Amino acid sequence: MGRPIAGQVVVVTGASSGIGREAALRFGRRGARVVLVARNGEALARVQRQIEQGGGRALAVTADVADWAQVKEAAARAARAFGGIDTWVNNAGVSVYGTFEQVPIDEFRRVVDVVLMGQVHGAKAALPYLKEAGGTLIGVGSVVSQVPLPLQSAYVAAKWALKGFYDTLRLEQERECGGVQVSLIMPSSVDTPLFQNARSHLGVEPGPMPPVCEPGVVADAILYAASHPVGDLTVGPGVVLTAAQRLWPHAADVVMRHLAFRQQLTREPEAPGAPHNLWSPVPGPGAIHGGFRAIPFDPYSWLRLHPAVGRAVAGLALAAVLPAGLLLTRRRA
Fold first, then answer.
1. Closest to 157 in 3D by CA, of 100, 235, 218, 101
2. Residues classed as catalytic
């Protein structure tokens, strides 16, 4: 039996855009009290209005997750406003495109500060409240938490580190009686504004590495983790990449070496002085989608979020195959 989302106090970082925005809106529709955290106050205000117009309750907190003091204060404000925190979603992220040699060290460090340390700050600030509530800490990693991806060395390094961080934290919490549930969602490429907002040294607009999934697919996984005990959850068709990396690492590296450079580059030249969100938010109301072609439905993810159906499908497949196997065995005998 899952834990109801209705009535939960849920904090979502990176709620102004993409996955975080979609998840926050879905939490609001499901009856959660949602605390929206991001740097873009204008976009947060719009998401807050959408939730409240739908009959929900929300609080917008402008904060940079790379700043420990701001994250700690965001957690305190959430608890003061709604009486505690049941679920904390670490989602905020930025990226910079270019080879490792092209990326200045301060930009590399900034990505690590936001993507890795931002989630460390969130976990540190949230844990005392989550322990009181018997709550859930959810991190948003990536398929590149398990697969190398050229042209995004800082982002990949931070996402790989998140996998180790959450695995370790989960073991520590499982050892405690009444510890916090720790989940890591690892999506494939997602159709969000992350790519248009990223800092780029490529001379053209970067794009997502196919296959690309809808933000709603990832948001569904986040809501599932907020209501069901789950550890790691890989989301989207990129699960094929993680399987290939484990089973045939050399072949997977050859494929990535050839495809990653071509498929992450669009044909759109980057405008000189184009805004990016590495150091400050891109002004505007924010958005969920980035305008890339995405797969609207992913059966693998759907079955992961509906395990009873998955078991039934596996049972039917076994029931269909087993008689044929027995017949073949008898004939050989």
1. 100
2. 155
